[in-house]
Amino acid sequence: MPTVPVFPTGAPIWIDLSSSDPDASRAFYEALFGWSSVDTGPDFGDYVNFSLGDAQVAGMAQNPEPEKSPDAWVTYLQASDAETTASAVTGAGGMVVGGPHVVGPLGTMLVAVDADRAVVGAWQPEQHRGFGVLDTVGAPSWFELHTTNFHDEVQFYQQAFGWQTASMGDTDEFRYEQLMVDEKPYAGVMDATAYWPAGDPAAWRVYFRVADVDAAVSRVVELGGRVLDPAVDTPYGRLAELADVTGAIFKLIA
Q1: Beta partners for 60?
Q2: What is the pTM assigned to this prediction?
Q3: pLDDT tens digit string along 43-97?
Q4: Fold exhibited by the domain 140-253
Q5: Helix or strand holding residue 25 (H, E)
Q6: Which of 221, 192, 188, 191 is nearest to 207 (CA)?
Q7: 12-125 adopts what CATH topology?
Q8: Whether the Cβ atoms of residue 62 and residue 22 lie closer than 8 Å to each other
Q9: CB–CB of 63/19 below 8 Å?
């Protein structure tokens, strides 16, 4: 049985999908990853929780303004105190755009944009402790920020979320920092200057682990998604980038 993850301050603790068509998104991810789902009802805004077996792995909410904000996966970082985190985000050059909101007995959330305009969340857990499983087939595996303002973004997360980082490379071809806690990596920041459209905001990407990337890519297409970057072998595994049935971008890894 997979070990239940432990989330140090600043580490990714949850993801949710902002979808303009929750029914279509729900069917897509259930078919792709074998997830089950539960609607939490009107008291919680009809938020949907996805599970892999008995373990919660992701959530989903209605995107109220898809014409202004495209459908996307949002990464939430663990916050020991959401109010303090909100102040730190502002002090580091970001902006809080939602919250902090107390979500009943589950915890407290906020949503912000960072120094390079990437949307990022924070979650102060109470009853909802975050992911029930990570890095197994069908579950989230890795979390990565892509930015053309690399040094400013690394500094932002160090200041706003208390990150301690380690360099994995510092050349124009590969510039990468990892969030490290007790010598364990939890997330990464990639210098995207070589491939990111000039002027576009930074963005978080979620990797989902699959048994076979090529088979999963074919399944994405069958389900109405699109291939953005075809499968390729890397030192870190075989990777691909896809868009789901409403256009939200995600990655696969095996």
Answers
A1: 17, 48
A2: 0.97
A3: 888 999 999 999 999 999 999 999 899 999 999 999 999 999 999 999 999 999 9
A4: 2,3-Dihydroxybiphenyl 1,2-Dioxygenase; domain 1 (3.10.180)
A5: helix 22-33
A6: 188
A7: 2,3-Dihydroxybiphenyl 1,2-Dioxygenase; domain 1 (3.10.180)
A8: yes
A9: yes
